[in-house]
Amino acid sequence: MRIVLGVSGGIAAYKAVEVCRRLVDSTHHVTPVLTEAALRFVGAATFSALGSEPVPEGLWSGGIPHTRLGQEADLVLVAPATADLLARYAVGIADDLLTATLLATRAPVVVCPAMHTEMWEHPAVAENLATLRRRGVRVVEPASGRLAGGDVGVGRMAEPETIVAVALAACGPQDLRGRHVVVSAGGTREAIDPVRVITNRSSGKQGHALAAAAASRGARVTLVTSSSLPAPAGVETVEVESASDMQAALQAVASDADVVVMAAAVADFRPKVVADHKGHGVPDLELEPTPDILAGLVAHRRPGQVLVGFAAETDDAVGRARRKLEQKGVDLLVVNDVSAPGAGFDHDTNEVTILESGGGATALPLRSKREVADAVLDKVVARLRGSTGDSA
Ligand code: CTP
User: Fold this and answer.
1) CA of 311 to the centre of ligand 1 (A)
2) Is the pLDDT of residue 390 over 60?
3) Is the peptide bond preceding residue 80 cis, with omega within 30 degrees of 0?
4) Which residue among 117, 137, 350, 383 has the highest number of C-beta atoms inside a 10 angstrom radius?
5) Is the pTM of this model over 0.70?
6) Is 350 an active-site residue?
7) Are residues 161 and 210 located together in one domain of the fold?
8) Other CB atoms within 10 Å distance of the CB of residue 25
């Protein structure tokens, strides 16, 4: 999702840094837009480093139309929103890039007021907020606590975690609300000795994007991951290392899940014996297969549970995957041709075909891993509706 993160000039601007980081960790594209006053509290360099693109310089820079960011955004989030910013937005002033973006957008807008208690309680602020609410703007209410200058009271900006959760829930369908989605991600690491491992090239990006997308669609998400990527916002994360750790962690949560997505690249083999201290010289490794986690999940699936497998292939990708889908007994198999340019391991984009049991096949041209995640979840939602008899 393309998110414009507007930051106006209040002490809470320092907390917007954390909001930015969390949104980027959840695989969104974040453009930070700071007002002049915001720049007195935090430097553009901080947001440029954490955001997905540098902080644009203002209305008059670079020949970019002042409406572009607003038109392209899927969400505009303003944190903190000062009394002044809310007033300018409410009356339709567009004299800087942030207010111009707010007027030019048709995307959901979420504002997070932050100000002193006296200002928060002033009728002018209350009326401006009422106007904005009437127009569909969502407001993340401030909390009570320490304010700038040593004051204490209502007006303190909500915490970043809350802001991110409300903002993401404000856009997109909530078609996984009430569902528990379990996702595995990353390449497992199989120990040779206390220092060395056997692993593969998987980064975990596709699995983390799936977890983040499911959370934004309202699901309770458990992510079982061996990736070093940061955990997406609002997702319960279980960190694992080896295939057997992953199997144990998944078994513990899968019985309660409506959906299990095996996006992890589980190592296919591991050393039969793990040395208990670091060996010297070239070891003579005897390998054995790892447990087939997906097969275990299929064998113990609960009625109505949707199971999704992934397949990384390098030749005759779709043909091999169709046979794999049947043999594994999953509902959906997402096939990655890892030899295609821009697709598969460690890229931010992916090119996949989604195969369905019963015959469907949807080829998706190269797109972001987040978009691939949403396309997979669209199919999952259709399956869930089918199995519960809901209408689509
Ligand atoms: N998988 C698993 N346990 C394993 C190996 C793979 O659960 N020990 C899962 C993966 O997470 C993926 C699916 O099985 O969802 C297919 O993985 P892939 O490695 O492509 O298939 P394999 O079954 O290992 O077949 P092969 O390597 O022979 O192509």
Assistant:
1) 7
2) no
3) yes
4) 350
5) yes
6) no
7) no
8) 18
Count of domains forming the chain: 2
Q: Which range marks the domain in which residue 78 is found?
A: 2-171
Our answer on whether the CB atom of 262 is closer than 6 Å to any ligand 1 atom is yes
292 lines ligand 1 (CB under 6 A): yes
Amino acid at 93: I
The pLDDT tens digits for 318-340 are: 899 999 999 999 999 999 888 77
Task: Report the nearest-CA residue for atom 9 of ligand 1.
Answer: 294
Which residue has its alpha carbon closest to ligand 1 atom 24?
268
Burial of 196-230, coded b for 16+ CB within 10 Å and e otherwise, reads ebbeeebbbbbbbbbbbbbbbbbbbbbbbbbbebe
Distance 98 CA to ligand 1 centre (A): 47
Here the tokens at position 147 are: 């304010």
The two tokens of residue 108 are 């959901």
Q: Residue 116's domain is classified under what CATH number?
A: 3.40.50.1950
Say if residue 68 is in the same domain as residue 203: no
Tokens 């980081």 identify what position? 21
CB 205 within 8 A of CB 264: no
Q: What is the DSSP letter of 60?
A: T
290 lines ligand 1 (CB under 6 A): yes
Residue 345's pLDDT band, with cuts at 50, 70 and 90, is confident
